[in-house]
Amino acid sequence: MKGTKEKLIYEKTNFWKASSEKEKKEAFDFAEGYKSFLSNCKTVRETINYTREVLNNNNFVEMSKSANDKRVFTVYHNKSMLAAVIGNKPIMEGVNVVAPHIDTPRVDLKQNPLYEDSITSLGMMRTHYYGGIKKYQWMSTPLALHGVVIKRDGELVNITIGEEEDDPVFIMPDLLPHLGADQLKKNVKDAIDASQMNVIFTSIPHLDNGVKEAVKYQALVLLHERYGITESDLLSAELELVPAGKARDTGLDRSMIAGYGHDDRVCAYTSLKALLAAKSGKHSRTSVVFFSDKEEVGSEGNTGARSSQFVDFICELLKTNGEQYDSYAVRKTLMNSQILSADVNAAINPNFPSVHEKDNAVIMGQGVSITKFTGVRGKGGSNDAHSEFIAKLIRLFDKEQVNWQLGALGKVDQGGGGTIAKFLAVHGADVIDCGTGVLGMHAPYEIISKADLYSTYKAYSVFYLKDK
Ligand code: MN
Ligand code: MN
After folding, report:
1. Can you say whether residue 89 is alpha, beta or left, with left for phi > 0 and alpha for psi between -120 and 50 degrees?
2. What is the distance in A from the centroid of ligand 2 to the CA of 331?
3. pLDDT tens digit string along 395-405?
């Protein structure tokens, strides 16, 4: 019988082989907008500022100001955001949520960062890294300084240094190999101590001979001249070092993108694009995007996925839509909802294939990844989605011709990780991880395929059409 083999055997599909020329062109075109987003949104706040502007330009209204609006959003503490397009059915019958995180591993400045090195008389900044990084990857690479300083009178000063062509960049210098004998004997994990991750900030001293630590003082003079800030203002600042420069095509065929923060801004961009395309008239269920903060440090705090803002937003949605919004209604809505925990997964790295089991791993260019469970040591700490939900999701992706693949995070007992899936699942909704495969996750420059970027966008778009 013709087609029996195709029916019986599961094989991943290479997007570039299976797609039409038109679709391949769409994937390439889609990547241009994404690269610009990734180049311009390197911090949580920058991502929120960008998102707020895009939502405003696309007729979304802040929930607090809305009266019967069908496109609404709320930003919490300038760090997290929920947005929705209200569908035709009552919200209490359940909503479809795509939930990426918008924080990214980075190197924060300490609260009291500036000092003058007594031996070299260099002006230095102390740092405290954020998220699970391999420290050595961040040494001797150009970094840009991004962030905000909130002055005592409440004035907010934005700082971005290192992104323009003629901006200076910052470096945490690693040790030269010639004198690295002791360092090279260490485990990679211990090769760089966190106390060695200080960044060189300045080197010219103030010329007044009466000033102690004249290089540090001159750095403060410059900061005051340029930004009107003092050393004491730095104590309440959020300043972050991130890899300098723009996201770029990689590969001779330009089929991939190298950039900082694909984890998880690739899922943020694609989910936002999918939400913008959602139409009240066309979608029976309400479509929601949830950008959470602090995933890389455990989803804690009042902007992390564990906070009550998600439930709060659902409550506000019910109220705005003129529905019952008591505790019962909110809980029923959550129980009836379905959620894609939109996060990246580790694609097989051709240089390190042994950490994966190839038949259960993500392969770059072969579609958006569906991940049933994450976790460590026997699925510990994972959401482990239900069969019923996965089957329906795959049926939908097949019907809508989304290029998808199933992928676990590494081979059993190799390590593991978690996502926000389990924090959202506690509310009773069906949740599954679904996102883009990444090479070199948490490195200063990560790689994704334009095919998977586009497939992720398509997956989120059609998910918003999914009924229960
Ligand atoms: Mn992630
Ligand atoms: Mn991560």
Report:
1. beta
2. 30
3. 999 999 999 99
